[in-house]
Amino acid sequence: MKHRLFGSVTGKFWNVYSLMMARPREFDETLAIGAAAAVFRRHGYAATSIAQIVQATGVHRGSLYATFESKRGLFLRVLEYASSGGLSADEQLDLLLTALVELPPADRVLRERIELLMFSTQTTARQLGQRLLDQARVRDLSERGGDLA
Predict the structure, then answer these.
(1) What is the spatial distance between Cα 41 and Cα 98, in angstroms, rounded to a whole number?
(2) Three-class SS of residue 15?
(3) How far apart are CA 28 and CA 57, in angstroms?
(4) Which of 81, 70, 80 shows the shortest CA–CA distance to 45?
């Protein structure tokens, strides 16, 4: 006989056994965030799928959503992680560029995370511009005095 717990969660009754058997989180959030950062850097925000993040982190889709709520929530945590010094300078610049180019400027929370990352890393507009040119494999012609030859 199953014992019923009074009350409901999402309209379903939970038995005592199922509540006792709930599993604790079985992944290291910091490692998952670092792996997700690499995927966002490689593919950009929009082109990154949850399936790619699942594959890179080894964390089940349901666990990712339970922890981060959404792809956006995970990306915000990635930016927070980058602000804390968890990534190299080039990785930080890549994530900043992804956020600046791909995500909506009306997103106040995202804008605050970008500003925090720029402040904590002392990133300048010149550094961002240079990194953008480097990623595109375009030479900065101003360093050659504008000579196009």
Answers:
(1) 7
(2) strand
(3) 10
(4) 70
Query: Nearest Cα to 56, choosing from 39, 44, 43, 42?
Result: 39
Residue positions counted in the chain: 149
Write the DSSP assignment of 84-113 as a string of letters.
Answer: TT-S-HHHHHHHHHHHHHHS-TT-HHHHHH
Q: Tell me: the pLDDT tens digits for 33-88?
A: 999 999 999 999 999 999 999 999 999 999 999 999 999 999 999 999 999 998 99
pTM: 0.75
Q: Could you tell me the residue ranges of all domains in the chain? A: 28-142
Alpha carbon 36 to its chain centroid, in Å, reads 6
Helix (H, G, I), strand (E, B) or coil at 64: helix
Calpha distance 2→19 (Å, rounded)? 12
Helices then strands, each counted (H, E), the chain: 8, 0
Q: Half-sphere exposure of residue 127, counting CA atoms within 13 Å on the CB side?
A: 13
Q: Which CATH architecture has domain 28-142?
A: Orthogonal Bundle (1.10)
